[in-house]
Design a protein that fits this description.
24% strand; single chain
């Protein structure tokens, strides 16, 4: 089976239609349609059906997606392995990350990796939560993931890369101070949190539950980038990684550590089996000393 045809099939799946896929991969739509029909002919199965909302995978199409992604990734690994023998590490690496981990520790890791391997492009994709990230790794959409340690990673290989502290970020008011925030005093305090089930929310909920406190949620947002602006606007107190908190402090927010401390273990995950040479080197740089440790 022609790998190019598989790539074009996946482009239609990922972009939700032939027209948008053709534009994204710079292929004429008739050629794209022909490539998908050729895959269907070889497999003797209909893979996609058109609908008013775009294209829909048939059961046969759904069964093909993950093996197709893995086949393409396996070929990329083989090509990269040969290139590595010749002393040239090039190409790209796909990294999935939780949104709040993209700034720290991923940014520093990607920076060190790029300095060492300037011919490799790092493609970072943000995922909604740890479950979505694990799915991206299992399906082959990304080779490596940066996420929190937890049950969502069952079946994946975990490498601990950081122990990240979450700190309190509060509006600057007469009552705010620069000491340590005792979490036991949070009853009735307005909080700005991400939705239940998200990585940072899980850490906060567990700590408050242990203290017998029901959080007073002033704002719940899926937009992690909105946490600090909401705090600065006076909506309430949020809990974010220290690297993000330092930016908030420069903008006028009060930043405090907490008692007890809020921490999460950050891990790099990948599927079982051999990493690409770029993936293996990315792991080396991820396990190097990080500012979050």
């Amino acid at each position: 089976m022609d790998l190019r045809h598989l790539r074009l099939f996946l482009a239609v799946v990922d972009h939700g239609g032939f027209t948008t896929a053709a534009a994204a991969v710079h292929v004429a739509q008739p050629a794209l349609s022909l490539a998908v029909r050729e895959v269907e002919r070889e497999l003797d199965a209909i893979l996609l059906v058109r609908s008013r909302k775009g294209v829909v995978l048939t059961p046969a199409g759904e069964a093909l997606v993950e093996p197709a992604r893995q086949a393409i990734r396996d070929v990329e690994i083989a090509v990269a392995a040969v290139a590595a023998v010749t002393g040239v590490l090039a190409g790209h690496i796909d990294v999935a990350a939780l949104p709040t981990l993209a700034a720290d520790p991923l940014a520093a890791v990607a920076g060190r990796f790029r300095q060492a391997h300037p011919q490799v492009t790092v493609r970072i994709v943000a995922t909604d939560d740890s479950t979505d990230l694990a799915l991206a790794i299992r399906s082959g959409r990304s080779e490596i993931g940066v996420t929190e340690q937890g049950p969502a990673n069952v079946g994946l290989i975990e490498h601990a890369i950081a122990d990240q502290e979450l700190v309190a970020v509060s509006p600057r008011t007469d009552k705010a101070d620069t000491g340590v925030l005792d979490l036991a005093t949070l009853a009735g305090v307005p909080l700005v949190l991400t939705p239940a089930g998200t990585s940072m929310r899980n850490v906060v909920d567990a700590a408050l539950r242990d203290l017998g406190i029901t959080p007073l949620i002033a704002v719940e947002t899926e937009q992690r980038d909105a946490l600090v602006p909401l705090v600065l606007a006076g909506a309430g107190t949020a809990f974010v990684p220290r690297a993000i908190a330092e930016v908030a402090s420069s903008q006028g927010a009060v930043v405090r550590g907490t008692h007890p401390e809020l921490r999460r273990r950050v891990v790099l995950v990948h599927r079982e089996g051999t990493l690409s040479p770029a993936g293996a080197q990315f792991l080396v740089h991820a396990q190097a000393k990080s500012s979050t440790k």
